[in-house]
Amino acid sequence: MLKLKSLHHLCVEVPDLDTNTKFATDFGLLETARKDNRVYFRTYGADAYSYVAEPGAKTRLKSVAFLAESRAVLDDAVQQFGATPVRPLDGPGGGFAVSLTDPDGNIIDIVYGIEEREADPMLPAPQINTPDNVQRFNTRHVRPDDGPARPLRLGHIGLFVGNYARSEAWYAKTLGLIASDRMYAGVPNNYVGGFYRLDRGEEYVDHHVVGFFGMGAPGIHHFSFEVQGIEQQMVAHRHLQKANYQPVWGVGRHPLGSHVFDMWKDPNGLRFETFSDTDKYNAERAVFDQDVQKSEMDVWSNDSVERYFS
Ligand SMILES: [Fe+2]
């Protein structure tokens, strides 16, 4: 398996680049470069860029990039898994990449050596008063600024997969992904959804870096950026609502992964999400399987799971 550090960025094609880039900006991403027809967006974190959009005939995922642990991982990808030869990247920060193809034809890039930027400072953490822990004395809650969220990094993607078992096997063998939670339909092992994390040994990582959904045509379901906290998501939700964008679901809390999420559709149909407060697992945590009939999408809502996929 390839030693990976994190998810790095994704590239999409959209029929209407102008509405996509306007949405990405209102969502909180920051345009950092334009090259040919490609628009690069960064977050407030250290990655040189996290989201790349370019015009195409239809809305689709063009590629997803994972950051390798070392330069040698790119050679491993070529020699052990048949990746394309190492090539230089021409986006901000340079670097190198190789490309793999997953069982559904998604291009999975392994990248290394992209120069990082200096991350913007985090906002001061809100002081929260609870009955057993008062933090604010003779002062009031500092109201967050109205406006977009401040995404910090690309954290995970959700993919519709054509053959669940085939995808699970490929991502485990090639990228070393570990199952955190899976859902089965009818009988155990008939998985229809699941969440997979990076194998970083003892290091604690997000509950998932990739989610699989075993229904619908293969392709991207959503992609998600970490933000600092729940209140920022609530304020950003209000900002997107005011701009009349299409909400999908949120602000809610997923039972699997425990993260607070807020998902919106851009005018091209791409689902953008923010998340905060996710569970962190290391490689020791055992997988938990459950019947999909018993699964819920949101701890705070009675809405049916279907809406998440609409
Ligand atoms: Fe998500």
TrEMBL record:
Domain of life according to the entry: Bacteria
PROSITE patterns: VOC
InterPro entries the UniProt entry points to: Glyas_Bleomycin-R_OHBP_Dase, Glyas_Fos-R_dOase_dom, MMCE/EMCE_epimerase, VOC_core
The keyword Zinc-finger is assigned to this record: no
Protein name per UniProt: VOC domain-containing protein
Gene3D superfamilies from the UniProt entry: 2,3-Dihydroxybiphenyl 1,2-Dioxygenase, domain 1
Species, as recorded: Hydrogenophaga crassostreae
SUPFAM superfamilies cross-referenced by the UniProt entry: Glyoxalase/Bleomycin resistance protein/Dihydroxybiphenyl dioxygenase
Gene Ontology MF annotations: metal ion binding; methylmalonyl-CoA epimerase activity
Domain VOC: residue ranges: 6-113, 153-277
